Amino acid sequence: MMTFPVLFVFCLIFSSSYAAVQDFCVANYTAPQSPAGYFCKNPANVTVDDFVYTGLEVAGNASKINKVRLNTAFVSQFPGLNGLGLSLARADLAVGGSIPLHTHHGATEIILVAEGTVVLGFIDSNNKVYLKTLNKGDILVIPPGLLHFQVNGGNSPALEFAFFSSADPGVQILENSLFLSNLPTELIAQTTFLDTAQIKKLKGFLGGTN
């Protein structure tokens, strides 16, 4: 029969090992990605650099159409986020810049305006619009899955940071789904009541077909 001191030491060792295994699951980019996400990197090969990301210190790639530069820190770039249920992004909006209507399925988003003025809005499932002009230091939260947008509302460049409740929030942009796809123009016209000529013009502008 196991004595109490021996049992105590055994439980302590077991709980310590279990805690170490459960502390984190740094993404292993060299292993095949499963539908559930990235496999865990061997803890013996994990370093502090896996938990540090410096990519948001600069603006991201520019969108000539929307006058916005986006830079993300999702799990695909930041391995330490794997399994933690959060990520973030940086958006630099030039004067007149906008981020069009889009959704992040299953991810809540919090937007912090760091510089300038940004007009933000989202639409709920009852088609009620929630619209607000935010200035430096203001924060707005967007519930998961709702259509939302951002527009530079001032006369100077704006900078914002977005925080997500998912390591890989994903994005579906409404205009891209309609006009950057091969969805037939006739069906778009029938389901949106948009003019056929305008749909073709937008498809030609964004690169859609059919």
Automatic annotation (TrEMBL):
The keyword Metal-binding applies. Oxalate binds at residues 104, 109. Mn(2+) binds at residues 102, 104, 109, 148. GO terms for biological process: auxin-activated signaling pathway. Disulfide bonds join 25-40. InterPro entries: Cupin_1, Germin, RmlC-like_jellyroll, RmlC_Cupin_sf. Residues 1-19 form the signal peptide. Residues 54-200 form the Cupin type-1 domain. The keyword Signal applies. GO terms for cellular component: apoplast. It is found in: Secreted, Cell wall; Secreted, Extracellular space, Apoplast. Keywords: Apoplast, Auxin signaling pathway, Cell wall, Disulfide bond, Glycoprotein, Manganese, Metal-binding, Receptor, Secreted, Signal. Its main location: secreted. GO terms for molecular function: manganese ion binding. Gene3D superfamilies: Jelly Rolls (2.60.120.10). Probable receptor for the plant growth-promoting hormone auxin. Belongs to the germin family. This is Germin-like protein. It comes from Rubus argutus. The lineage of its organism: Eukaryota, Viridiplantae, Streptophyta, Embryophyta, Tracheophyta.
